[in-house]
Design goal:
This protein is mainly alpha-helical and about 130 residues long. It has 7 helices and 2 strands. The chain has a two-stranded antiparallel ribbon.
Length: about 130
């Protein structure tokens, strides 16, 4: 299954928000790191979230994928899995199309079935 990111890495490079050398540095490191191989767009997302600090980006990627208490959040991301289908039917997220004046994204969250959270504890992860 492929995911759409709403942007292409080249577009972000063209906007001078990241550089190809930064992307390639992270991708080279990614080949030997014990994490899944990332797409260019994923690397761009990590770089942007880390203010283009390549070393901090690497640490963030490791932290993101090495959460031992919640591996099922980061691995086997097949959206057709029955447990993920239940989550999609129970939870609703909507990202507003326009960011705030200070560049923040607004995400609205709605729980369709409040009983599910009590009955199915896996729906209620608490990440630090």
């Amino acid at each position: 299954m492929s995911f759409e990111y709403g942007y292409a890495a080249q577009d972000i490079v063209n906007e001078n928000r990241v550089t190809w050398p930064e992307i390639e540095t992270v991708k080279q490191w990614n080949l030997n790191a014990n994490v899944p191989i990332l797409l260019d767009e994923q690397v761009v997302g990590f770089l942007l979230s880390c203010d283009r600090d390549v070393e901090f980006t690497k640490k963030t990627i490791l932290d993101y994928f090495r959460r031992t208490y919640a591996q099922n959040l980061f691995n086997n991301r097949d959206i057709e899995r029955p447990d993920l289908q239940l989550q999609l039917a129970t939870l609703e997220y909507v990202a507003f199309p326009v960011k705030t004046e200070d560049g923040c994204a607004i995400i609205y969250h709605k729980l369709h079935d409040s009983i599910s959270c009590k009955d199915r504890r896996w729906l209620c992860y608490h990440l630090p």
